[in-house]
Amino acid sequence: MSVLDNWDSWKDFLGDRLHQAEGQGINNRAVSELAYEIGGYLANSVDAKNNEEAVLRDLWNVADEKEQHAIANMMVKLVQNNGSQQ
Questions:
Q1: Residue 61 domain-assigned?
Q2: Highest taxon of the source (predicted)?
Q3: Less packed terminus of the chain by CB within 10 Å, N or C?
Q4: How close are the terminal C-alpha atoms of the chain, in Å?
């Protein structure tokens, strides 16, 4: 099963990656920009595997660039307390 198949697994996966990045000294601005790039890739290249991902994709696709950055930043905040490396 892919981490994309389950919303909670996806949040844990993102949380783990966020904690790894922080542990390697990557600053918040770089994390935010990476989240924005990943959001664009997922919205344009990956089929949604659950309802939550479908909503995020739809929101991303109607958002302008500033709003997409806001969505990416909210996703970072959402997963900050997820993952196994809290």
A1: yes
A2: Bacteria
A3: N
A4: 23
Residue 20 lies in a domain: yes
Which two structure tokens, joined as six digits, stand for 84?
């196994």
Identity of the amino acid at 84: S
**Tokens 């994390």 map to which residue?**
31
- CA distances 43 to 26, 49, 68, 74, Å, are 24, 12, 11, 16
Q: Residue 27's domain spans which residues?
A: 3-79
**Angstrom distance (rounded) from CA 68 to CA 81:** 22
DSSP one-letter code for 3: G
Identify whether 84 is part of a domain: no
Q: Is the pTM of this model over 0.85?
A: no
CB distance 3 to 9 below 8 Å: yes
